[in-house]
Design brief:
Distance between the termini: 65 Å
Number of strands: 0
CATH topology of the largest domain: Tetracycline Repressor, domain 2
Helix content: 55-70%
Low-confidence stretches: none
Number of helices: 9
CATH architecture of the largest domain: Orthogonal Bundle
CATH class of the largest domain: Mainly Alpha
CATH superfamily of the largest domain: Tetracycline Repressor, domain 2
């Protein structure tokens, strides 16, 4: 006889979670973190607020879990077998993440909120910054193992160099990535980081 889920136990349905996730991203893009509300997300997702609270305990937990899932999932860098290839894949993935139609406005708003809230900043670093940097670190460690990068490289500075030019150009300068920009950036990073 098949086992039944105990009465009263929450069963999280994946399609509802996807609907909520989509609603969170839409609300963040349109309203920003400060004006995000559980009520608005529930209404947009077509669920009751209890569906949100079964998944997350607060607005902050909900928003950051969704943003982290979106962000870290876009940090899968392919092992191409060379420093140049890995950096090119990495800067392409970073550019796609930062230029995503919805996420570009979410990130700018989230960075502004982080400046006002050290607690939020710490959580964002734990959930998004550190996992993305760990994937970048893997690129550099592979290059060290292949002898393409010196083992005494300043790892933190090198990781900053991978993402900072794209972030600066897109979000601070409000510029665009014209054809050839990522190729030129890759070439410059390989020269800067390589032996």
């Amino acid at each position: 006889m098949p086992r039944r889920t105990p009465s009263g136990a929450a069963v999280l349905q994946p399609e509802i979670t996807r609907s909520i996730t989509e609603a969170v991203l839409c609300e963040l893009a349109e309203r920003g973190y400060a004006r995000l509300s559980m009520e608005a997300v529930a209404k947009r997702a077509g669920v009751g607020k209890s569906a949100l609270y079964r998944r997350w305990t607060s607005k902050k937990d909900m928003a950051l879990a969704v943003v982290a899932e979106f962000s870290v999932g876009r940090a899968e860098f392919v092992d191409t077998g060379s420093l140049e290839g890995d950096i090119r894949e990495s800067v392409e993935a970073i550019a796609q993440w930062l230029t995503h139609p919805r996420f570009s406005s979410i990130l700018a708003d989230l960075v502004a909120e982080m400046a006002r809230s050290p607690e939020l900043s710490d959580v964002v670093e734990d959930m998004i910054g550190r996992p993305r940097r760990e994937r970048g670190r893997a690129i550099l460690l592979r290059a060290i193992d292949r002898g393409e990068v010196s083992p005494d490289i300043d790892m933190e500075l090198a990781l900053d160099m991978l993402a900072a030019p794209i972030y600066w150009r897109l979000l601070v300068r409000d510029g665009s990535l014209e054809p050839g920009y990522l190729d030129g950036l890759t070439e410059m990073l390989v020269r800067a980081l390589g032996k």
